[in-house]
Amino acid sequence: MGLFGSDMTTPTTILRLAIRNDAADLQSYFGSLSKAARYNRFLGHAATPTLDDINRIIGCDGDNFFCVVATQRYGLAQQIIGEAVCSIAPSAEIALSVDDSVQGCGLGRALLMSLESLAAQRAACELHGTILSSNDRIAVLARSLGYTLERPEGDWTHRVIRKALPVSAVIPFRSSPAMAASPWPYLKGALRAAAGRA
Ligand SMILES: CC(C)(COP(=O)(O)OP(=O)(O)OC[C@H]1O[C@@H](n2cnc3c(N)ncnc32)[C@H](O)[C@@H]1OP(=O)(O)O)[C@@H](O)C(=O)NCCC(=O)NCCS
What we know:
Mean pLDDT: 82
CATH class: Alpha Beta
CATH topology: Aminopeptidase
Number of helices: 6
Shape: globular
Number of strands: 8
Low-confidence stretches: 175-186
Bound molecules: coenzyme A
């Protein structure tokens, strides 16, 4: 599956905030992840989340708890190929995954950077996430983006990745040439405003 392209035959990859209508597609996405990827994402053996679980993952309003999805569009159809979530309160915690078939193409980096940008817009000062200590891939990626790697005391199975965000800075939404920033507004309140217009 190609990530790149702007002609009619090659799908375009878009990062945007998830909305309630994405729940079924997100559920299929989680169901299609390899066991290993799901294990790393949910820090253990996990069944495919139910639609109720998915709605919690998507969050209510896109503000204090939000989910970014990476989608590929084929005409009117879309396929989710990655997701990243952030819970701002009480402290900003993150988790993410990328479809096995497109890992290593830069999507994980783009998702993590978009979380940083959105969390900073929502006044978060720091991001952290718990990973399995065997998960070299996310450890390397996080380190390359300036995260520190901590070992919680007495816990040899997990690591915590952590990064301070610049105070009150608006980090621009950055995307690789493969990604088009979504036309959706990203600021706090954006989803509520969009729901009000619908
Ligand atoms: C971790 C994950 C999200 C990374 O997504 P990705 O799209 O593959 O990541 P990218 O393509 O952006 O790669 C980013 C970096 O990872 C590192 N990387 C890639 N493949 C790697 C490998 N096999 N081993 C170690 N590091 C690797 C590289 O440093 C790469 O940087 P580069 O772009 O400078 O080469 C993805 O592997 C995944 O979904 N894993 C399962 C779920 C998971 O582990 N989630 C994290 C915990 S919540």
